[in-house]
Design a protein that fits this description.
This protein is of the alpha+beta class. The protein contains 28 helices and 20 strands. The chain is 48% helix and 15% strand.
Length: 747
């Protein structure tokens, strides 16, 4: 048990409070300090006696959230008061009326928004997709609600170590799926990177520690290279008479991990571990030209990669980000990314939309034009309450994270869309009716298919027809959440009409056969035709997919099977008729929760083996499935269905059992005579491992192979991988997931 020193705790509290006032000092108006002191006093009183899981006094949490809001986001007095009080209505006897009478309607309104979110995203519970809309709705009221919530989440992630492993996985996965993308979309790049890194720390702890250690080891060498790289640049920029600062920005641990995984390379082959940032102190009138002057100096010394020039000064990103990026060839044949921006641009890049108000002199009740457009799109998406919540979340996440393309209308208006957006996406972005009746498109005056992927600078004209209606294929042509939701809504309306016709046909068939119109009989019909719902049954009958004669045959079959006491398709009543397997009891292998005798089965999407970090997932029809925590589907399951996650671990004696599990390894190397024989000898003869399947392909002197083996446990697999790496000509050996589609896993 942690021993608390009251005096030391009090001193630390005073220090943190003074740090907060110090961070706010440049922006405080007369009387502001008094209001902040009153808010702090109220929070102290309300949270008196409360402690966090870590053992520290609860008041440190709202104080730290307020500090993040002030220092790292740059919010002002009102937001700081709200940050200090963000948990009092949720966790104490203080009411919104108390807040309003003391601090006014504006503060009470933000606290109300934060309290609504807290009801959805609890301190320990994972967010559910059905409540995702509620969080987005708060954006429309006051952006500060989300900014404070992001600060709250960042502090919770910084102190996540005190939580249990199960909650760590849920909260980290949720952060990766929702809060990091939101921080990205609001321009809070530093916070986004830290949230991703901290999420990785808990979802992939071994990988996180390895990358952190290697970054620390190579730090001195990196710094030496950076000094050599910037030396000639500094002299030339100084001669121009510009005030400037040069920083080096290390690549985030999460970005390094993503690159290693995506390109299947080790840490040592990730060369862009840092970027050089040049910040010019220019007036608003000169900042563009000064940035281009610096770019000219850099390209005098180093050859640029023309395909890696990004001009976000002329056309800023949708979240307000402005910067000039170029990648140049530095010493020793290394590519180096250089970012050039003004002090104002850097402030906006670090603090996102909070910095826009600082430079535009606007109150927080008005919002930046780009943000206004984004919130408008959110409102449009939220108008369709019938859309599937999981699909909605996936689509929205895609639009949060994606890069952008800039497209022009025939009149020359600029429209921003996610990268990979199509002509059909553009049509729906203009207006729902334009998208719904879209017949074709002209890009740069040439006719193109609706699936045409738009490029920066394209000018698009949409051709419409009142007779045109969306089809199922259209869903394959679009990437934006708005277009997908509108197409699905239109298809659903059409499907509903056809389903009503099908229901009428089925009703008549039941009536004519004197067969009871009951839920039981309708479900029997659904199972007979191997469908999932009664709506699908009605639709298939209405659309003619199921012939009327087939319906009559099915009814006769039911009548006959009732007489002989069997259910449709010859199944006995107690046997599942949906063709799905039920989890089989496998005692003593895995402890699920605190139980050793619960039935479970291993998910085929990741093929966990003893030694892997695992969790249990409760499915509707297949019992408990055991997944690896780094399963391709794991993050999605833990973030969307946190309430169905169960703690799981390998039983103590599992590793001693003589039992094998499938595991896949991928090999890359130089093709040579006898190399495959050498690999199989080590696997089969030296280590006595059974090979389930092997695939090897050779192209121009290089080979790639994938082998599925039957392994005892993780240490067995790691030993085998190390042995194979010793073979001459083998360049890389890595484990891969034996993939299976997610469909059906979470039904």
């Amino acid at each position: 048990m942690q021993v608390i020193d009251p005096e030391l705790e009090k001193k630390q509290l005073v220090k943190e409070y003074r740090n907060l006032l110090k961070a706010l000092r440049p922006n405080l108006e007369p009387g502001d300090k008094k209001e902040i002191r009153e808010a702090f006093a109220l929070a102290m009183e309300a949270h008196n006696g409360m402690r966090r899981k870590s053992g520290e006094a609860y008041i440190f949490h709202p104080l730290e959230v307020a500090n993040i809001c002030a220092k790292e986001i740059g919010l002002g007095k009102t937001a700081i008061i709200c940050a200090l009080l963000h948990d009092v209505v949720e966790d104490t006897d203080v009411t919104l009326e108390d807040i309003e009478s003391k601090f006014g309607h504006g503060v009470a309104n933000i606290i109300d928004g934060l309290t609504k979110i807290e009801g959805v995203v609890g301190k320990t519970n994972s967010i559910q997709a059905e409540n995702f809309r509620k969080i987005l709705l708060t954006l429309a009221d006051d952006v500060r609600v989300i900014l404070i919530k992001l600060a709250d989440r960042l502090h919770n992630m910084r102190t996540l170590e005190a939580m249990g492993r199960n909650n760590q996985l849920k909260i980290a996965s949720e952060t990766l799926v929702l809060f990091a993308p939101l921080a990205h979309r609001l321009g809070l790049y530093s916070i986004k990177n830290e949230l991703e890194d901290l999420s990785l720390k808990y979802t992939e702890p071994i990988v996180y520690k390895e990358i952190t250690h290697k970054l620390q080891q190579s730090k001195a060498q990196r710094n030496k290279y950076i000094r050599r790289f910037i030396e000639p640049i500094q002299e030339s920029i100084t001669e121009l008479g510009l005030e400037y600062e040069i920083k080096s920005r290390p690549k985030s641990i999460f970005s390094i991990y993503n690159k290693m995984k995506k390109q299947d390379i080790p840490f040592e082959e990730v060369y862009d571990l840092f970027a050089i940032r040049i910040i010019v102190n220019s007036t608003p009138d000169n900042e563009k030209s000064d940035c281009w002057r610096v770019y000219s100096i850099i390209t005098d010394f180093y050859k640029p990669n023309p395909e890696r020039l990004r001009d976000w000064i002329s056309v800023p990103k949708g979240n307000g980000y402005e910067s000039l990026h170029t990648t140049v060839m530095g010493q020793q044949g290394k590519w180096v990314e250089v970012q050039i921006r003004s002090v104002r641009m850097d402030d906006v890049a670090e603090k996102g939309y909070a910095a826009h108000w600082k430079y535009k002199g606007e109150s927080f009740t008005g919002v930046d034009t780009n943000l206004e457009e984004w919130i408008k799109k959110i409102r449009e998406l939220l108008e369709n309450p019938e859309s599937n919540a999981i699909d909605f979340m996936d689509d929205f996440k895609l639009n949060l994270f994606s890069d952008e393309v800039f497209i022009f209308t025939p009149k020359g208006d600029l429209i921003t869309l996610p990268a990979m957006a199509t002509a059909l996406d553009f049509a729906f972005d203009i207006h729902t009716q334009v998208g719904t009746h879209c017949l074709g498109a002209k890009v740069n005056h040439r006719l193109v298919p609706l699936s045409y992927k738009l490029k920066n600078g394209d000018q698009v004209e949409i051709i419409t027809s009142k007779k045109q209606k969306p089809t199922e294929d259209w869903l394959n042509y679009v990437v934006t959440a708005k277009a997908k939701s509108r197409i699905k809504a239109s298809l659903k309306d059409e499907k509903r009409k056809v389903a009503l016709e099908g229901k009428e046909i089925l009703t008549r068939k039941f009536r004519n056969a004197d067969f009871g119109w009951t839920n039981s009989n309708i479900q029997r019909m659904v199972h007979y035709f191997k469908l999932r719902t009664s709506v699908e049954l009605y639709f298939n009958i209405g659309a003619g997919v199921i012939d009327k004669n087939e319906v009559s045959i099915a009814i006769k079959f039911f009548e006959l099977s009732d007489k002989v006491g069997k259910t449709p398709n010859g199944h006995k009543p107690e046997t599942p008729i949906n063709g799905k397997k039920v989890a089989v009891k496998q005692p003593d292998m895995v402890v699920v929760g605190d139980e050793t005798d619960l039935s479970y089965s291993f998910a085929k999407c990741c093929n966990a083996i003893p030694g892997d970090d695992i969790f249990g997932f409760v499915t509707v029809s297949e019992g408990i499935k055991i997944h690896r925590t780094n399963c391709p589907n794991g993050i999605r399951l833990m973030s969307n269905y946190g309430y169905r996650i169960i703690r799981a671990k390998w039983a103590n004696d599992t590793l001693k059992e003589i039992r094998t599990f499938p595991a896949g390894i991928k090999l890359i190397g130089i093709d040579s005579i006898g190399i495959v024989s050498g690999i199989t000898d080590i696997i089969s003869k030296e280590l006595q491992v059974n090979i389930q399947s092997i695939t090897v392909s050779s192209i121009a002197g290089a080979f790639e192979g994938s082998i599925i083996l039957m392994i005892n446990d993780l240490s067995h697999l790691e030993t085998l991988i190390e042995k194979i790496k010793e073979i001459k000509g083998i360049d890389n050996v890595s484990r891969f997931h034996v993939e299976e589609a997610l469909t059906g896993v979470v039904e």
